[in-house]
Amino acid sequence: MEVRARAPGKIILAGEHAVVHGSAAVAAAIDLYTYVSLRFPTPEDNNDALQVQFKDVDLEFSWPVGKLKEVLPELGSKSASTPSSCSLETTKAIASLVDELNLAESKLGLASGISAFLWLYTSIHGDKPAKVVVNSELPLGCGLGSSAALCVALSAALLSLSDSLKLDFSHQGWQTFGDSELDLVNKWAFEGEKIIHGRPSGIDNTVSTFGNMIKFRSGELTRIKTNMPLKMLVTNTQVGRNTKALVSGVSERAVRHGSAMSSVFKAVDSISNEVAAIIQSPVSDDLAITEKEEKLGELMEMNQGLLQCMGVSHATIETVIKTTLKYKLATKLTGAGGGGCVVTLLPARILFVCAIYSFSGTVVDKVIAELEECGFQCLIAGIGGRGMEISFSGFSS
Ligand SMILES: Nc1ncnc2c1ncn2[C@@H]1O[C@H](COP(=O)(O)OP(=O)(O)OP(=O)(O)O)[C@@H](O)[C@H]1O
Ligand SMILES: C[C@@](O)(CCO)CC(=O)[O-]
Ligand SMILES: [Mg+2]
Known about the structure:
The protein has about 400 residues and is of the alpha+beta class. The protein has two domains: about 1-220, 2-Layer Sandwich (Ribosomal Protein S5, domain 2); about 225-380, GHMP kinase, C-terminal domain (Alpha-Beta Plaits, 2-Layer Sandwich), CATH 3.30.70.890. About 45% of the residues lie in helices and about 20% in strands. A hairpin with a 2-residue loop joins strand 6 (about 215) and strand 7 (about 220-225). Helix 2 crosses helix 3 (about 110-125) and helix 8 runs antiparallel to helix 9. It is globular and about 65 Å long. It starts with a strand and ends with a strand. The structure holds adenosine-5'-triphosphate, (R)-mevalonate and magnesium ion. Magnesium ion binds near residues 145, 197, 204 and 243. It is found in: Cytoplasm. Keywords: ATP-binding, Cytoplasm, Kinase, Lipid biosynthesis, Lipid metabolism, Magnesium, Metal-binding, Nucleotide-binding, Steroid biosynthesis, Steroid metabolism, Sterol biosynthesis, Sterol metabolism, Transferase. It holds the Pfam family GHMP_kinases_N. One of its GO terms (biological process) is isopentenyl diphosphate biosynthetic process, mevalonate pathway. GO terms for molecular function: ATP binding; metal ion binding; mevalonate kinase activity.
């Protein structure tokens, strides 16, 4: 039997970075997924190794289970139903396994993802041989939550073939979990994110697990019911960056300028709360939608100003902002910044025209053409969609 799990990426509408320091943030799942499939070998397979294939980065690894037993000090001592953090001793042991892979210089950034994989796999399934395949529709390391989607999909796949969840294996197609199972997936995924991000707030794994739109503050999730159709243009500046380094850069600035940065975080908290309130407030007519969109756009611009204050903007992000501003569209970075992706609010009045002319000759068409001329990549993502789901195959009753 094989299980396939998928978990979505996300955009952050307001509050990235500040959320690590206790402010509220608002995030939405997007309809681009990371997939993880997991299969345990049958005796005929004669496979005594843990094999993983990361298709997006063209890497494949295999560890004989004997090697895992020899190197990992706490192997077999964890319980899948009790998520725990990676100890210093195990962190070192995993680092030695990853070092032995001799990753090329250009792929060193992937070491944290491989480490998270090894930690989650061995914590939940010990030294059981298996074949795992990972592939994603998300650009990696670009602010759309690829690390969280990986950790959530992996935790979901691993837990669904563990004894800690009782699932209906005969169900056809994608199925989701109940809230307590989702909570378990989310907690394990957070442990994986800790390995990749250093100090994650938990917003990315939470929105990827539960889907839709959420407000998140100090580890607490509030589900947001949207009363307005929200569409965003996502522009990938294609400038690579690393969330862990950006998060620690903001923390260092907060240490150097404690009082100023706490005012910045407080301002972001107010912005996120206002964004959540606007999205949830009832909509009476088209005029109300336009008013709400104007307010949202203004709040996004204010949030971007504060992100610049935190030191996480980038010349390419400023170029996207200037370009979209020519068309009176509001833009902010999303995720950790420093390059990566930027979101631009597409107001309903513009989308209405796009629907008539199927984008040709519309403002959206023009702005995308201009952005792509700068070497950026654009996509219009569906937001506020499904969270993590699993699907079984090869089950015979
Ligand atoms: N499909 C994947 N295959 C292999 N590794 C992956 C995959 N998805 C994510 N990763 C790991 O996650 C890292 C990227 O995580 P990072 O947090 O820096 O960016 P992000 O999650 O895309 O953006 P943000 O955190 O700003 O939303 C990669 O370098 C890799 O280690
Ligand atoms: C930059 C950050 O706020 C969001 C990354 O998508 C980090 C985090 O909250 O873990
Ligand atoms: Mg990430």
